[in-house]
Design goal:
single chain, 166 residues, alpha/beta, 6 helices
Length: 166
């Protein structure tokens, strides 16, 4: 099992160090992580300076209404897909007017579908350099999966922000 370290060396703290004082902002759109990414980001002292908020879009209806994900996209690619994750990241970034966003959509428990098996998450990050997606697998049970998905999303976001600063 992947254990998430917390504290000054963890991704959420490194993201905070990069964004504090920069004038750049961050938001999230979470499905399978159910707010875990937002929770971790807000454990960083001073995160209110750069963190705008999140949309926990567990339902396909909310993904459509708030984030602009069409039912056709979900039908064609699956709710757990690169297309949906990317659309979620772009949708929440636009909605909140943030510099960066991160999004997750996945199967955190024993269920999957014809597109992706259980323990799969698609993560997307969006910012000035465009939108990037990454597939991540971890299948150790619902709670460990959610923690691993959130950690992987923050690691991907950190990587994106660091590349953007170069």
């Amino acid at each position: 099992m992947n254990e998430k370290k917390t504290g000054p060396a963890s991704s959420e703290f490194q993201i905070g160090d990069l964004l504090k004082g920069s004038g750049k902002t961050l938001c999230a759109a979470e499905s399978c992580t159910g707010g875990m990414i937002s929770h971790l980001i807000t454990t960083v002292p001073g995160s209110s300076e750069y963190y705008l908020g999140s949309v926990t879009s567990y339902s396909p209806v909310i993904k459509g209404k708030l984030l602009g994900i069409s039912a056709g996209t979900i039908d064609k690619f699956g709710i757990v897909s690169s297309k949906v994750a990317g659309g979620m990241a772009e949708g929440v970034r636009s909605l909140m007017g943030a510099t960066y966003s991160v999004a997750t959509t996945g199967w955190a428990d024993a269920y999957g579908d014809e597109f992706e098996p259980a323990g799969t998450v698609w993560i997307a990050v969006s910012g000035p350099s465009g939108t990037k997606t990454r597939r991540f697998r971890h299948n150790e049970g619902r709670c460990p999966n959610i923690e691993a998905f959130a950690a992987a999303a923050l690691d991907f976001l950190l990587e994106y922000i660091m590349e953007d600063k170069v």
